[in-house]
Predict the 3D structure of the following.
Amino acid sequence: MSLVDLANTKARVIGWTAVMGVGQMIANAIANPGGIAAIASANPIPIGISILASIAIGIAGNMAANDLGNRMAEKLAKNPNILDNHDLIKAAGEAIGELLKDVAKSPQFIALALSKNSSARDLDRLAEKTPEYWQNINTEGVDLSRGLNISEDQLTLIFSADAAEFDRVTGLTPEDWARFIGEFAASEGKSFDAEIVDFVAQRLYETFPKAYREVLKQDAAKGGEKFAAMLLNLHQIALAELKDLGLQNEEILGKLEAVATRQQICQVMAKLGSIEIGIRDDLAQIRALLERYIDPAAPSLPISIKSETIIQDRIKDFTGRKFVFEAINEFLKTNRKGYFVLEAEPGVGKSAIMAACVVMLKRRCVTHFNSQPDGIVSAKTFLENACIQLIEGFHLKGKYPQLPENALENGNFLGRLLGEVSAKSSSEKKLIFVVDALDEVDLKEQSSNSNVLYLPEVLPDNVYFIVSKRPEFLPMPAANRKVFDLMKYSAESLEDVKAYLAKRTERSELIQDWINRRNLQREQFVTAVAQKSEKKFMYLRHVIDEIEGGTYNDVNLNDLPAGLQEYYQKHWAQMMGREDDPLLELKVKIIYFLSQAEEPVSCRWLAKSAREQNVMKVQQVLGKWNSFLRHEKVDKETRYTIYHNSFRQFLEVDETVQSAGITLDDINDDISDNSTGGAPL
């Protein structure tokens, strides 16, 4: 390796370490902010494994997650000051040195060294000199213009708060590391056998990012003496870039801006890898099973913005469900084609399972999330979404520059695309659709006697639909169909509920304080809340967020709501409050306008519908209903929709409507008048 090549290798490693440091800072500041009072929130931002996608959704113009990651990576890697950042160089050198020490002590390496008449001690001595050697590599005149060219998959892993995900980051190639080891050894008068060099290079390739993260984490635990200032500087560069790109999500900005001191840097970095090992391993095993059916080298399919928003929201704190994914894997493995139907009552986590499935398939599946609150309820929307994903994802744009006439009138064109894609795909891989909430589809918009969404009655080989629905009749294909009734797995679901509660409790000092103030044991808290939840994750999401946010500061464990319906009833009674509440009428109107609106709407739309001239009053009311709402940015304006259809249905129950003193006909008349008047959404 020439000195120029060595300098370029060092420059690339420094670029990667800068991006990895920023990625972990941002991911954990957003996903695990507990302990930093300034960014604690009663309504955590919906973040999943793809932190980048969550940030990208909040940027004006809805920048693609991959483009965002590359912009940030290039901003750091092409910054000439990066190569002069001695703390960053030192952190990378320490990580390499520590990793070489671990390799030298490993039984596999010791056995290999003996077989080559070498000594493991030689590598150990080299490890001791690594930081100094690394520091002294001269990078003057290195060309930074080429950038890092980090792949989409690697960017997603770098910006992941899940330690298991980050551990799959690789960085340089084994060949790069082999050349570095050879040059380093030669500078010390050593020469290793090629097999030894390859062994060490492979370990560096596989585990350098993990070793680097561990160096940062250990330093944070000691107060950040070495690297906190460096990380703070990198964080500020990245935050400035996000602002320049137009990040408008106020909660994400607030969390990132709140990390402004060395102490706060240490608080965030100390949380790296805090996710429970057992749960993490379960997800890793499932992911490996499902990834066998896709082509990891292929680009992810172009998921719609609304579906991506739902995925990011539902995947937050996803826990367990291993038994469901094992059933999906078994179905894919043992059937040439077909429909896997996940069936369960509202609130138990069907959409979260579907979202996790998309993520584990690395977004290399045709994805569609029906949603009444978002107005995604028609077969036409599904057909358009699915056909576009197939055409763009499988390079059929030349043949179909636009959708043919009548392509959305029935399932004929989708069937033709399935045949074409199936014919050109590898027989070892599968074309998988993930379609959520079939029960929310408006069948009145379809022709009579047709399957829901015009799902094909006959599928080509290696084509599979993983769909979810409530336990009610829907017209569906009869052949090659397996119904998985989630409600029959009560014991497994209870264990997942307890695991979720344990995770949330472990990560939140606020929840721990709530437990301690009542002289409870954590296990006692977990068991009691799990029983009250009736195994419904929607209940857990609401109640645990509200414990964390202080809503139940004056409530004992026994007085927490029992079940999702009681939670809705208690919250409704609280919102109705006193009859002399000046906002009472507006509270009722706003939530019912939201429940009946066919798509997300703005504060201005709600104000006009309620005939309320003071928009600030409407904003105040929205704040009171916030735990039941999902927010969406459209052209710099926030739009609102009911978070879950179960709450919409609670609002439509006769008893609730009567207590509100309204009629749904009147609400819908006002909405109709508003639309006719041209009110903004």
